[in-house]
Request: fold
Amino acid sequence: ILGVDEWCCGDHMLRLGEKGLFEFLAEHNIQAFRDHNVRNIITNSPHCFNVFKNENPYSSLTVNVKHYTQVFAEALRNGLIKPLREINAKVAYHDPCFLGKRNNIFEEPREILQSIPGVKLVEMNRNRENSFCCGGGGGRVWTEEAPYDKRPSVNRVKEALNLNVDIIATACPFCIIMLTDAVKALGLEDRITVKDVGELLKLSLP
Reply:
């Protein structure tokens, strides 16, 4: 754990065109990784995962980068963790753009959800390579939103609502923010909830 030595990965700065700031953050992080002899990086955010794995100067590092869903799915396959508590809910999985479209990680989050007793996993009409963006990428999570009925996140929640699901599960903190705000904008807090895949897995562990 790097603590204060770990700075923001800089992904959103890069997407917003602040390349100089991105490079400043990257140079600091690369030096911190080298100082601590880091060999493996596990990220919560697909944006961090993508930038560490694919963007220069991070991609020059000789480190193994994984998203947390890859780690948990592997642990489930190896019997290191075993969900036992039932979560009786109909769940739709929302593919984050930077996890799915950018890095082809589609199955691991679904493996985790399908391992949880009681979960009935259903697919959004637009899924995997054809998934629909939550609207938070490219720095838009930090910007003023369009009128709620024009927001991509509201469009996505309505799609899930048509499937009559109890939970929208995803694996990206920005998707969580955008979709949760959309649920609130539609006044559906008592009808549908947004959860992280890891959160659901934790609730199912003894």
Q: What stands out?
A: The mean pLDDT is 93.
